[in-house]
Amino acid sequence: MGKRIIQQARGHGSLTYRVRRRAYRYRVGYPVNGGKIKGDVLKILNSPGHSAPLVKIKAGKDIFFNVAANELREGQEIETNSDEIKNGNIVEIGKIPIGTKIFNIEVARGDGGKIIRTSGSYAVVTKKFPGKTAVFNLSKKEIIFKDNSRATIGEIAASGRVDKPLTKAGTKWHMMKARNKLWPRTSAVKMNAVDHPFGSGRGKRIKSKIAKRNAPPGARVGLLRPRRTGRR
Fold it and tell me: What is the pTM of this model?
């Protein structure tokens, strides 16, 4: 008798396929206070739910967590809503000169930063428009933000994370488990017919399948909402 396929099991929401809350106990963001405040880096932390180290910062009465900039150290002084372009400072994008590396950019003022938060990544300020600023990121996309959105100056730490060999499958498994990622991923055509719509040893030269928009987990396999199909 076949079991429920992986999509169905994950959609059920059991503890097997759910990330532990403790992995995301540190919430990355900027202080709500819009004024210029000097702060200190209290501690550099390792968070299993994030690919980069985090920093605990005390600015006035506020304590908040941010993604760690490269070469930032404990005890270093930083400024929120600063005018000074210094590594680790939080500055409005409109005040940042062209060519500066930034990360943890707010899409809308006050959301605490949503873009460029992976280890080793950064974006570069490229153009200035009236009330808006264009930013070029590592995925070769240019994004336009409002001038009052905040960002952190510098490059995110732990750029060499992917260079270190994991050596054991168990190490990779625990790392992916902490982030609620499915690993190892078995190819659908290698499964039995009862375990996946693409399963069985027959007919491995499968044609692309377009899943229906409202298909339930289990039938929702293949091409999901494709813009186009076929060869280019």
Answer: 0.82
